Amino acid sequence: MQLKQKFGDKISNSNTKPKMYSTIYAMHKYWAKKPHNLINEYIQKYSKKNDIILDPFCGSGIALIEGYNSKRKSIGIDINPTAFSLSKGILTPVDVEKFEKEFLKIESECKEKINSFYKIKRDNKTYVATHYVWMNGKLDEVRYRNHTIHKLKPTTSDVRLANSFSYAKIKQFFPKDKLFDNPRINATSKSRICDLFTPRNTTALAILLDRINKIHDKNTREIFRLCFSSMLGQASKMVFVINNSISENGKKKLKTRKIGSWIIGYWVPNEHFELNVWNSFVTRYNKIFAAKKIQQEAFGKPEFVNNFKNLKKGDVFLMNKSAIEGLKKLPKNSVDYIITDPPHGDRIPYLELSQMWNSWLNNKVNYKNEIIISTAKQRNKDITNYMKLLEKSMIEMVRVLKPNHCISFIFNTHSERTWREIFDFTKKIGLKIHDISTMDYSRTSVVQEHKEGGLRFDFVLTFKKSKSS
Predict the structure, then answer these.
(1) 252 CB-near residues (< 8 Å, 6+ apart)
(2) Cα separation of 227 and 94, whole Å?
(3) Helix, coil or strand: residue 299
(4) What are the phi and psi torsion angles at 142 (to 5°)?
(5) Per residue in 91-128, pLDDT tens?
(6) Cβ distance 127 to 155 under 8 Å?
(7) How is residue 369 annotated by DSSP?
(8) I need a labelling partner for 86 at 20 to 30 A (CA). Which of 51, 76, 137, 432 fits?
């Protein structure tokens, strides 16, 4: 049952183009972010000022941000500790002067130590390398900057330094837990989280995280932990090499190695970069500092509360719980509008893809109650388990939603069974289709673009709760 076949010309399209992620929306990578300006349109359409809006799968917190910006009260729930931290970190303004002062302290204590791991000697001078290229487990290229970028073959000294690091020598905490076996995201239980990083970079990251965790002020510490987790991908062995051939003087062809990036999953290519950890950290700090500076000038100061009752005087109630558990904390008929983007079956295994972040930040993760389909056999997350938990969460959503009010369900899947069960079940629990529209993505995913049959947009199914439900 394809939606376009079932509903035909009843499906509408927004005339508004999705905006790209920038400022606070681009602070940290997260899976399947929706365009903030389009989310705002739905909030404006289906709720009014001072209403309570809810997103029980809040992810990076875009619905919460737009709710606050639109003068609504916001409730966000997510089972993923990274999503919880990211939502709170984005919404929480930071004293940029205190932020900058703490960075300078970290710099004075960590920069020289970390950069010593990347020192190279050329022409009797010492430089700090910025990039290394590894091929089939061997160091193949060294780069450093001295007015221009120099690309050189490694010396015996360079190789000796790189090989002098080992996981066994690291004194600080670093993650040793194993990945799940999930071929869809190139994950195998033969690999540990730390194996995604060179021993050298693991050592540097462990030193940096240990220093960050010692920050006394909680808000400052948490924003630096976000800085840390946001740079992990580019500090890993998953940064692939883009090989291009160029012509020189119209004759000789030279192969250039451009820097790729960590995209999705846990693929470690045979040819990959190793980036200087301190440089990676500074890049992310500068980006987040700029975003927080803009936020300080243009954004209010949301007041977080720790229960529903206190939301009358506050702005945001955020819970790091499963959708079902979090929804049970809310009273019946208490929410004015729900807009949510739940996991779309097996499209994105959020907790597995976030394992690198959660493991480094030493977060406790509730894998059992995630609403997902996963090919990781040890998780027992098949379509039956998925539909059972999704339906339970939808029952709770209907319970907390006020009669005659709406829920916008952002969804897409190739599974005919999933579509059929969703429509049958929503009808059974007192939801009636009010509107169906499509939502384009902010930017084209590499996976979506190249995977045959990849989805280019999501459907937004807006249901209305009946008076009697």
Answers:
(1) none
(2) 13
(3) coil
(4) -125, 140
(5) 998 999 999 999 999 999 999 999 999 999 998 999 99
(6) no
(7) T
(8) 51
Q: Taking a C-beta distance cutoff of 8 angstroms, is the pair 222, 88 a contact?
A: yes
Which backbone phi and psi does 465 adopt, to 5 degrees? -80, 135
pTM: 0.92
- Which DSSP string do the residues of 398-415 spell out, in sequence order? HHHEEEEEEEEEEE--S-
Residue 329 CA to residue 377 CA, distance in Å, equals 32
For CA atoms 370, 375, 376, 380, the dihedral sign is positive
The residue type of 177 is D
Looking up tokens 């690291």, which residue turns up? 170
| Cα-to-chain-centroid distance, residue 135 | 29
Mark out the alpha helices in 168-235 (DSSP H runs): 199-212, 218-230
Residue 78 has pLDDT above 90, yes or no: yes
Token pair belonging to 276: 């200087």
User: What confidence score (pLDDT) does residue 98 get?
Assistant: 95
What is residue 137's DSSP assignment?
Answer: T
Residue 351 gets the label, from left (phi > 0), alpha (psi -120 to 50) or beta, of alpha
- Domains in the chain (CATH in brackets) are 3-93+300-351+370-465 (3.40.50.150), 96-294 (no CATH)
What is the token pair recorded at 35? 């365009």
| Residue 13 phi, psi dihedral angles, 5° rounding | -120, 140
The H or E element containing residue 143 is strand 138-146
Q: Within 213-339, where are the H helices?
A: 218-230, 277-298, 323-327
- Say yes or no to pLDDT of 447 above 60: no
**Whole-number Å distance between alpha carbons of 69 and 63:** 10
